[in-house]
Structure formats: C-alpha cells, structure tokens
Design a protein that fits this description.
Elements (H helix, E strand, L loop, with lengths): L7 H5 L1 H45 L2 H20 L3 H16 L13 H18 L21 E4 L5 E7 L9 H15 L4 E7 L4 E7 L17 E6 L9 E5 L2 E5 L1 E5 L9 E5 L5 H12 L4 E6 L15 E5 L2 H28 L5 H4 L2 E6 L1 H11 L9 H6 L5 E8 L8 H6 L2 E5 L4 H8 L15 E6 L5 E4 L13 H10 L53 H8 L1
Parallel strand pairs: 9-13, 9-14, 10-11, 10-12, 12-13
Antiparallel strand pairs: 1-2, 2-4, 3-4, 5-8, 6-7, 14-15, 15-16
Helix pairs in contact: 2-4, 5-6, 8-15
Length: 559
C-alpha cells in the first residue's frame, strides 16, 4: 500500500506556523495591554462581590433585615441626589480598580551589583581553604560560581552582609578549632569589621551559618531583679540563647531582657566565681552588682586589693561584715571566713547526725568578695607574711554545703598569680573588656562563638557557667556612687539599693594583726547567748576545742 504524502502545510510550513504563533502571541499581548484596565476593574468587582457575600453570610439572621434597610436607604438617597447615580458609578469603578490591582510585590530578582561583588569576593577568599586538588567535583574553584556555595544571604541597608549560609565540602576539617578559627577570622574581616558575628557550624550538614549580632543594651542601671534566693544576675545576653527574661525598668520604659543567672547554694554546681579583665573593663562594677544582690539575703565580706576605694559605699551597711583595703585587715577577714566555714560545717554535721535541720545561722549565705588578690600576694611575699589566697582553700573546697560563696576578680595579666585552689574551684567564669580569643578561651575553658571587637563599653564581655555555653554578657551599670564621674541617674540607682548604715566607718573596729580575728561590727548582739556566735567562732576556739577542728576533719566525721 503506497503511503500518502503529507499535506503541504506540514511538509514546508514550519516557518509559517512559527510566524502564526508569534502573531497570535503578539495580538494576545496587545489585547491584554488594551484591556488591562477592564480586566483590573472586573477583578475588583469580583473581589467586592465576594467581600459583600462574606459580610452577608457573617451577619446574623436577626440583623439582616436592618442591613437590607440600610442599603436600600443609601441607594434611595444616592438616586435622589443630583448626579448621584453618576457619582456612585465613578466611586464603584474606583473602588473596583483599587481592589483589582496586582497586590503581589515585585520580586527583588536577586542581589544587586555591589552585593554580587561582595559575595563573589567572599567566595574567592574561601577557595584556598575549601578546595582540594583531588576533588572530582569541586564546590570551590578559582573562577567558579558562588551561587551553589551560598544558598541563603541577607544584606542590611548599607549593603553589608547580616546573614550568610555557607556550604563547604565534607572533607574540610571543621572539627579542629584551628580550622574553624581561620574561617571565622577571614569571614569577619571580609564581611566588615567593627561588628560581632556569630558562627554556627553544622558538622553533619557541612554548613556554616554566619549572623551579625545586635549590640547588647549598655544603658540598664542597677535595680532589684525578680529572682529567687540563690540566684544572682551577672548581666544580660542575647535572646536567642536564653529562654528566660526579666522585667526591667529603664527610666519610664519597661522592657524584658534575657539574663545570665548564676545559681549558688547547696545544690549549685558552680558555687564560686572568677572574673577577669583589664583595668576599666567593669570588673569592679560586676562585684558591686553581685554585692548589692547578695545583701538582700546574706552577709558580705569585701576585700579590695586595688585600694582605690571602689567599695567605700558599702562600709558600715547592714549585712556587710567588713570592707578591707590593707594586708593586715585582709588576712584577719579571710582567717575569720575560714574559721566561720569550719564552724558551719561542724554545726551542720551535728545537726545531720541528730536528725535535725541545719541551724539558721548556717543557712544564711556568706559571700567573700576579693578584688585583685594578686596585689596582696606580692605584699605578703615582700613582708614575709602568709598569702591571703591560702586562706581561701577551706571556703572554696567546703563552702558550698554551708552556703559560703567566694567571688574572685583580678586582671588578665595576673592570672598566673592565682593559686591552684582558686583556679580549680571557681567553675563560673567571666571575662570583661577587650580580649583576644585566646585570652577568653584560657579563662573560660572554651572559645567564644562570636568575634570579639576592639572597642566595647564597660561591663561588656563573656560568661560561662561550668561546662555550659559561652554567653555574651553586659553587666548592669553599677558605678561607684562616690565617684565624681558617675551620672546622677546611675548614682541614685546605686544609692537606692544600699542597705541602711548602722555603723559608721569611725566606729568600726580597726583590723588587728594576723592570727587574731576581730568580730564583725554591729552583729555581736544578734547572736544567742547559749551558743557560739558566727562572729566570735575563731575567738572561742580555746574554750571549745572542737570548734578548731579543721574542715577536713569535719567532713570525715560526717562520713
């Protein structure tokens, strides 16, 4: 059977069909352009009708009659007005055109030329680190495309990167701190200095997320925080890392800020704190803030190795056992604190053996705050006396069961002068002021996940509680109220938090020589007459030999 030839239009009419399709598409586009206002109005009328129908269905049945009467009245008034129907039609068409407009915003279509240039620069800077000669399908190559390496990105109004998702090959050594540090330093330098970047490494997905962190609020003054007994607010951090927030007052404004809360007491896993920083970084501000919070529920012993009078406002206040600035007074106060810790251990052990609750005086927290103990170390060595840090072994080792907390603060360049007991038993750590990542890691035990900046306000740094994550920290403004450079608002905020002054500085007893412990001012009369007082525990060691038993013996007795 002979095959019939194809029609002529199918054999050589391909060009004619293409021209016909092009003419039809052009005609359709022209008709769409011409009829676009009509299409917009029809779309708007349909949306208005749908809105009217929904309104009618949402109206209760008992109110539909009133609604119909209202609509009929409006129509009657419009019909009786001069040019009323014409104006009604114009208004309806205008409303329909407004409702029928294209509401889908025009897409950005990708980054602009300057943003593409910045992304391409980042890509080529990462090529030497994320490329390998033996990779058959390299993601990073010289002259390659950056679109596959950066799946997501965001820019601010100035054209700088605020969020960037980076994909990297699986063979990169992202588990080594040195490899991570190189990439983080490179990205911080190429993305713009002067900002803090947070780096989140997804080792399983081979992705790195870079985010620009907003500055922490540095204008929060000292105030009463809504906390439970045993909780101390060290400062404030980012909301993405802490789920809890505290209500704060800033002038007439109320705000909720996520805090860094340090828990002390019997059940605390980080019972003691070590703070470090350069001069002017806000370490003394942190200690004043801690002291003001501790005085709400406990007693405080303050030792100032700097001798600058940063804690003179606390002298003679209720709950402040002593404020010492000299070597002799520091030795006497720390010796009393060590004996007081031993006395509490013995009293608590006897109560446990008898099946009774611990005495009330052992449950009241006792805080020992030392600012720059390394200064006393040099003075004691020159004078041939005992190092005051050696007297901290008993409070540091055995203070947690009897509510004794030690806070030590010193400068970064004096960390080697701290004793092993201080470094081992202070599991809560704070670093304030400008510091390199190596210095932060040396104090906290882990590097920060952000890039430190050179210029930071006082009280700005990092905090780590035990083995937890490293948090950015901003200490609340707690300046010395007696300093002339302090503002009136912050001065008044600190003065409002100070307890009442019951003993003047002149009436307070002077520090005695080492080996003789002085009682705390203003608290002897509060102790019952039938039991040894917490203030006179060292002095009664001769009358009660068991009170002079060292802490190790007390612990052995309890076991």
């Amino acid at each position: 059977m002979a095959r019939r030839p194809l029609p002529r239009i199918l054999r050589n009419g391909g060009a004619q069909l293409a021209r016909s399709r092009e003419l039809a598409r052009t005609a359709a586009d022209s008709a769409t352009d011409v009829l676009h206002p009509l299409i917009t109005i029809m779309r708007g009328l349909r949306r208005l009708a749908s809105a009217g129908r929904r309104r009618w269905l949402d109206t209760p049945k008992e109110r539909r009659g009133a609604l119909l009467f209202l609509v009929a009245s409006v129509v009657l008034v419009v019909a009786l007005l001069p040019y009323g129907p014409l104006l009604a039609v114009i208004t309806l068409m205008t409303a329909a055109a407004w409702q029928g407009r294209d509401r889908v915003p025009a897409g950005s279509g990708g980054p602009d030329e300057s943003q593409v240039k910045r992304l391409r620069s980042l890509y080529h800077a990462l090529v030497p680190y994320f490329s390998s000669a033996g990779d058959p399908d390299p993601l990073y190559t010289h002259g390659g495309a950056w679109e596959n390496a950066f799946p997501a990105y965001e820019f601010d109004g100035t054209g700088r990167i605020t969020h960037l998702l980076i994909s990297y090959p699986a063979y990169y050594t992202d588990g080594e701190p040195e490899s991570r540090a190189r990439i983080e330093h490179l990205l911080a330098a190429k993305s713009g200095r002067g900002r803090e970047y947070h780096f989140a490494w997804d080792e399983e997905g081979n992705q790195l997320t870079v985010r620009v962190l907003a500055p922490l609020p540095a204008d929060i003054a000292a105030q009463r925080f809504v906390t439970s007994p045993g909780e101390t607010v060290l400062g404030f951090t980012d909301p993405t890392w802490v789920r809890r927030t505290l209500p704060l007052t800033h002038g007439e404004e109320q705000r909720d800020v996520p805090p860094v809360v340090w828990r002390t007491g019997v059940r605390s896993t980080e019972p003691h704190l070590l703070a470090a920083g350069h001069p002017g970084s806000g370490v003394s501000t942190l200690l004043r803030s801690v002291a003001l919070q501790a005085l709400v529920h406990g007693d405080v012993v303050i030792i100032d190795g700097g001798g600058t009078g940063e804690y003179a406002c606390l002298t003679g206040r209720d709950g402040v056992r002593s404020v010492e600035c000299g070597l002799a007074g520091a030795l006497a106060s720390l010796q009393w604190a060590a004996h007081e810790t031993e006395r509490r251990l013995i009293a608590t052990n006897r109560a446990h053996q008898a099946g009774d609750p611990p005495p009330a005086d052992t449950r009241r927290p006792l805080w020992i705050l030392l600012d720059r103990p390394s200064a006393f170390t040099h003075l004691a060595a020159a004078d041939g006396r005992e190092d005051p840090q050696s007297l901290l072994q008993v409070p540091l080792r055995h203070g947690r069961p009897v509510n004794v907390t030690v806070v030590v603060a010193d400068q970064l360049d004096s960390m080697e002068a701290l004793t092993d007991a201080v470094r081992q038993h202070t599991r809560a750590r704070v670093v304030l002021g400008p510091a390199t990542p190596d210095q932060v890691a040396a104090v906290l035990g882990a590097p920060p996940h952000t890039t430190p900046v050179e210029h930071v306000p006082p009280g700005r740094g990092y905090a780590r509680l035990g083995t937890g994550p490293v948090h950015r920290l901003q200490v609340p403004a707690t300046p010395n109220p007696y300093d002339d450079a302090t503002g009136d608002a912050h001065r008044q905020a600190v003065l409002d938090l100070l307890p009442a002054r019951t003993t003047t500085a002149d009436a307070a007893p002077k520090a005695r020589a080492p080996g003789r412990t002085r009682p705390a001012p203003g608290l002897l009369s509060k102790a019952p007459a039938d039991e040894p007082s917490a203030d006179t525990a060292p002095a009664t060691a001769d009358r009660h030999p068991e009170a002079a038993v060292p802490a190790e013996a007390a612990v052995a007795e309890s076991s």
